Amino acid sequence: MSRRGRETSRASWTLLGSAVSDLSAVVRTQGTTTRVDVGLAVLALAAGMVLSACGSSGSTGATTTTGASTTTPTTAQTTTTTVPLQTPTRGEFYSPSGNISCEIDNVPPVPSIYCQTSRPPRSATLKADGSLTVCDGNNCLGNAAIGTPTLAYGTATGSGDLGCASEVSGMRCTIGPGDGFFISRSGVVALGGAVVSTISR
């Protein structure tokens, strides 16, 4: 029983005792049926209050509220780490799969980027003037130097305005503001304003 219920019950029992005393006094002094009836009515009222207090003390007023949580999706951020070439103006590298090899030559008279795929046999040569030559066939391929390093996924390298970035789906190479190409097993895709010419060997 709660504290409030106990206090209400105690008050009701006090009232009940007072009513019984009054009833006894009335019976002794008056002996009339009317006063007895009134006393019985008071007794019944007091008993009802006691029972009501006892019944209400078992109830609780607790309310449970369940709140829905909201999750804000986050956007994945892609970070590219830049690593140097073997020299300030020239370098070679493989893709992690080993299927793509590239060479950057930032030397006069014509700075260029060259990449090739072994499977299928294909190469792409991008010059500083934005011209892109795509060559299909085994005769289009060269051999990378011994000890050529691997350009890890999410890593870029380059010299001046010439650069390449290694991606899981292929190699992206550009000159200047974005003219260049993307090479993979699927083929060569020109980027920006690169002008493509295709040859077969």
Low-pLDDT runs of 5+ residues are 2-17, 19-77
**How much β-strand is present in the residues?**
25-35%
Strand order of the largest sheet: 1-7-8-9-10-11
Main β-sheet: number of strands, strand sense, barrel status?
A: 6 strands, mixed
From the N-terminal CA to the C-terminal CA, the straight-line distance is 98 Å
Q: What is the gyration radius calculated from CA atoms?
A: 47 Å
Number of helices: 2
Mean pLDDT: 74
Structural write-up:
The protein has helices at 3-29, 33-56, and strands at residues 81-82, 90-94, 100-105, 112-117, 122-127, 131-136, 155-159, 162-167, 170-175, 179-184, 187-191, 195-200. Helix 1 (3-29) packs antiparallel against helix 2. The chain is globular and about 35 Å long. Strand 8 (162-167) and strand 9 form a beta hairpin. It starts with a helix and ends with a strand. A six-stranded mixed sheet has the order 1-7-8-9-10-11, with no helix packed on it. It has 201 residues and is α+β, with helices and mostly antiparallel strands. 23% of the residues are buried. It folds into two domains: 3-56; 81-200, no CATH class. The chain is built from two helices and twelve strands; from the N terminus they run H-H-E-E-E-E-E-E-E-E-E-E-E-E.
